[in-house]
């Protein structure tokens, strides 16, 4: 029982990160019908930008409070990723809106490789240690179950950010414009909505969420490197499909469910395969789930509700 509870805790933490990244996928898909496979690299850029900011702060102001350093790093990483998201939409995707679906898909994959290469040139190929500014000393709220303050912070911040996004989309004029653009670009434009600006803002918001997710991911594992966004990006895409791509609630649910399945599966995979596989093969669960969902329920757990896909 202790093993199960521990893996549930781990799954909630990882699932929270997947959910934040999945929201970026599902928002862009809801607006454009485009799968932005470069979104995982935005996560990586956010983590490495935050790392660079922290290194500068440690050299300039070594006595600054750790949480203040982390907050500044996040506030620097978010605008960098938002600008990157805007440039991706403006330079790579805008001219392909009327093109066959394969063209933007290939472009997205090309953007992913481009961002990885640029990050490798800037930060090198080596793994970088991400400073542990929030305590990693384990707490034991339940006998045999350990939780660190970093994990608690990740879950709380993720919940707050996701709640804020839901309020933005459902309660503000910008959210109404996003839903109208997702419903029908041409009709929204006739009603006075600047659809180009709304689409660009969707990329910007998704990139901001990716920056926060990147800092969380690096803080949880204590490392950052140029290829760190690829696998979380694929898993977040799986989470978006699992929940119902184009559906905000579905993306959140898919991220949490995928994190739980992956973590619990990693704890018991050796037993299930009679020692043939171990926990290092935990990635297999994400892609098994993706295959099952695409075959038996391609609309995902919550389906694709067109009226509030944005």
From TrEMBL:
Annotated localization: Cell membrane
Transmembrane segments: 12-35, 42-61, 67-87, 99-124, 144-169, 196-217, 250-269, 284-303
A GO cellular component annotation in the UniProt record: plasma membrane
InterPro entries assigned: ABC_transp_permease, BCAA_transport_permease
Pfam families attached to this UniProt entry: BPD_transp_2 (PF02653)
Chief subcellular location: membrane
Name this polypeptide is given: Branched-chain amino acid ABC transporter permease
Organism name: Denitromonas halophila
């Amino acid at each position: 029982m202790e093993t199960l509870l521990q893996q549930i805790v781990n799954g909630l933490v990882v699932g929270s990160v997947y959910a934040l990244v999945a929201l970026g996928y599902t928002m862009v898909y809801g607006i454009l019908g485009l799968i932005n496979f470069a979104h995982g690299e935005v996560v990586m850029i956010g983590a490495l930008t935050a790392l660079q900011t922290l290194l500068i702060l440690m050299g300039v102001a070594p006595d600054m409070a750790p949480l203040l350093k982390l907050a500044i790093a996040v506030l620097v990483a978010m605008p960098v990723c938002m600008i990157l998201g805007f440039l991706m939409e403006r330079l790579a995707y805008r001219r392909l809106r009327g093109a066959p679906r394969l063209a933007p898909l290939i472009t997205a994959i090309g953007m992913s490789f481009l961002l990885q290469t640029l990050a490798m040139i800037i930060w090198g190929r080596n793994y970088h240690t991400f400073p542990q500014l929030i305590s990693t000393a384990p707490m034991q709220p339940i006998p045999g179950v350990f939780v660190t303050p970093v994990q608690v912070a990740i879950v709380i911040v993720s919940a707050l950010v996701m709640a804020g996004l839901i309020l933005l989309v459902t309660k503000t004029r910008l959210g109404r414009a996003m839903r109208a653009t997702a419903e029908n670009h041409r009709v929204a434009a006739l009603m006075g909505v600047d659809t180009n600006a709304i689409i660009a803002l969707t990329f910007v918001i998704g990139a901001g969420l990716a920056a926060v997710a990147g800092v969380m991911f690096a803080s949880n594992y204590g490392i950052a490197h140029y290829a760190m966004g690829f696998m979380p990006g694929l898993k977040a895409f799986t989470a978006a499909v699992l929940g119902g791509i184009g559906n905000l609630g579905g993306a959140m649910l898919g991220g949490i469910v995928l994190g739980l399945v992956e973590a619990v599966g990693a704890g018991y995979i050796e037993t299930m395969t009679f020692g043939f596989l171990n926990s290092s093969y935990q990635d297999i669960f994400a892609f098994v789930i993706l295959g099952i969902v695409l075959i038996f329920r391609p609309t995902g757990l919550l389906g694709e509700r067109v009226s509030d896909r944005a």
